[in-house]
Amino acid sequence: MPLIETVNLCQNSDGRDILKNVSLKVDRGEVFALIGPTGAGKTTLLRLIDLLDLPTSGKIYFDGSDVFESGKRKLEARRRMAFVLQKPVVFNMSVYDNIAYGLKLRRVDKGSIRQKVGRILEMVGLSTYQNRNARTLSGGEVQRVAIARAIVSEPDVLLLDEPTANLDPVSTAKIEQLITDIIRRDDTTIIMATHDMSQGQRLADRVGVLLDGEIRQTGGFQDIFTAPGSREVADFVGVENIIDGVIASNDDKVVTIDIGDNVIAAISDYAVGEKVYACIRPEDVTLALSRISSSARNSFSAKITRVVSRGQLSRIEMDCGFPLVALITKRSTEELNLAATREVYAIFKATGVHVIKRKSD
Ligand SMILES: Nc1ncnc2c1ncn2[C@@H]1O[C@H](COP(=O)(O)OP(=O)(O)OP(=O)(O)O)[C@@H](O)[C@H]1O
Ligand SMILES: [Mg+2]
């Protein structure tokens, strides 16, 4: 039984659908990342799950019971969750008192409070800051206080909204390490919103891609990354080469895709005549100075239109009769002497092509 389940959650504001039929299941102990661009509805969804707002329609089950059945159910569920807001606010009091605040409200005895807060302060690395006024802390430190405040009550579910937005890389790494410690130490169920896919990959067991208020795909990161289910998800996860075509032949799942003046070989179940997109990740495209013939490979003569250096990698933009982008090491770029207007061969394996069905328009 999932610990949290939403069924067809809809949120409508001023006649606009902000969330559309969101159905999700998150198991106990699972780390689930909601990824999506800004404005997709991540915060709105987390607020609904934390029972801060009421959905326009749909249901939420916590540990198997419908939370809207009674006020008591709702309160019980709320007590077992803690929410770290996208822009956390700290109270104008010491770091220690900020973290102890919720426990005091719950009338936990002083000795236990001291023990729990002491342990958490150590965990978040703020022991030496305990007497500092929390309003004097840096952004990263405030975020750690906010997380400490959330976990000190030992929630079953921790909701994190963009835990590292606006933080520098060092603070981001510290927060991610802290989240990893929480994941390892407790069996806390975590639902986190992030627009940073690589963060989702580093921390989460499973991801849900939220685009424009809809969950478009859920699954392991690798599945979504290599086999996006739609053009929109492919775009979001950074598949830069998305080429329109039609399945021209299918010989025991080895297909050819007619893309106009060219043909791409791929592996797919789709039947002849099906309209598809051929998706190729730029890192799966290699370049060579001579044509390599192999039936398992796609090889196109290409003219380089632009080379953009990005640290140890180069982004090579080409015209193969269709636009194609490759991401290759700087070293290969130098060895092959790649530059604009040079003619090369762009090569990618049939197994490196992910085929998505095109919606008929
Ligand atoms: N109270 C509200 N009233 C009206 N519209 C709202 C309200 N809250 C959010 N929205 C709108 O709903 C949409 C989703 O907002 P939300 O904050 O959930 O997105 P998000 O995915 O969290 O974005 P970000 O990554 O920027 O935090 C946005 O278009 C936003 O303007
Ligand atoms: Mg948000």
Describe this structure in words.
This protein is of the alpha+beta class. It folds into two domains: 4-233, 3-Layer(aba) Sandwich (Rossmann fold); 239-357, Beta Barrel (OB fold (Dihydrolipoamide Acetyltransferase, E2P)). It is 27% helix and 36% strand. It contains ten helices and 20 strands. The chain has helices at residues 42-49, 71-79, 95-105, 110-123, 139-151, 169-185, 197-203, 221-226, 231-236, 330-335; strands spanning 4-13, 16-26, 31-35, 57-62, 65-66, 81-84, 157-161, 189-194, 206-211, 214-219, 241-251, 254-258, 263-267, 275-280, 286-288, 297-310, 313-319, 323-329, 343-349, 353-357. The protein has a six-stranded mixed β-sheet with strand order 6-7-8-3-9-10, sandwiched between helices. It has a five-stranded antiparallel β-sheet with strand order 13-12-11-14-20. Strands 15-19-16-17-18 form a five-stranded antiparallel β-sheet. Strand 12 and strand 13 (263-267) form a beta hairpin. Helix 5 runs parallel beside helix 6 (169-185). The longest helix is centred in the middle third of the chain and has 17 residues, at 169-185. It starts with a strand and ends with a strand. It binds adenosine-5'-triphosphate and magnesium ion. Adenosine-5'-triphosphate (ATP) is lined by residues 13-14, 18, 36, 38-44, 86, 162, 195.
